[in-house]
Task: structure prediction
Amino acid sequence: MNLLMKIVIIEDEIPARKKIKRFLDDLNVPITIITEISTIEEANIFLTAKPELDLIISDIELLDGNAFEIYSKNKVTCPIIFTTAYNQYLMDAFETNGIEYLLKPFSFERFKKAWDKFLLLRKTAVTNHTILNKLDQLLKNPIEKTTTKKRFTINTPKEIYFIETENIVFFRAEEGVVFAIDIFSKKHLLNQNTLKDIELLLEPESFFRINRSEIVHKKHIQKIEKYSKNSLAIKLLGQEKHLVTSQSQTKLFRDWLEE
Result:
């Protein structure tokens, strides 16, 4: 039996690829990285040859779209560890061959936990039916979810006040800070630094990240129009300017609206 494990990294951000390779080196295990891929097109070409792989470490949002396009088109039999800055893909990940879902930025300890789970599945050498049962158990014990916030605290030089989450129309990230825009079109500077931090505090049934910089509240969507072939324009309460979905999020946004 060949003990050298064959791994593919699918990630479009160079710093993220370097971090994964550094973590793999720190594991001090016999592996070989077969290739590093940054686009859906590259992945489709590579997987067409049906290479023998032990593990795929895959980002979800890539340069040319959503990585689930890869796994719907190609039959992948090896486990996949997903890495992403978005938390709404959890169920999609486990509906493929996903065995772990790492939210960026993740630590070496969190990465090693995912690796240990991969080794456990590899070592057991069980039937496909048993593997599916294991994945079902993973679904019943997903990543820990932060308690959703009913209101956000706003700190200003003169006062501290609160804004109810139900009165927030959308969130926007601008130049390293995050704002909440309320039903009166007023902007509030939040304590959280990234939209990812905000996402973890929201009910996924009510809020959706439509692009890299904006999260919308379903309750305050008034109208949706076609913006381009793969994007939608969203009219929100009190907002003259429409918000636009990214191409990679449009289909997921449509599905979310139907939930």
The mean pLDDT is 88. Residues 108-124 form the longest helix (17 residues).
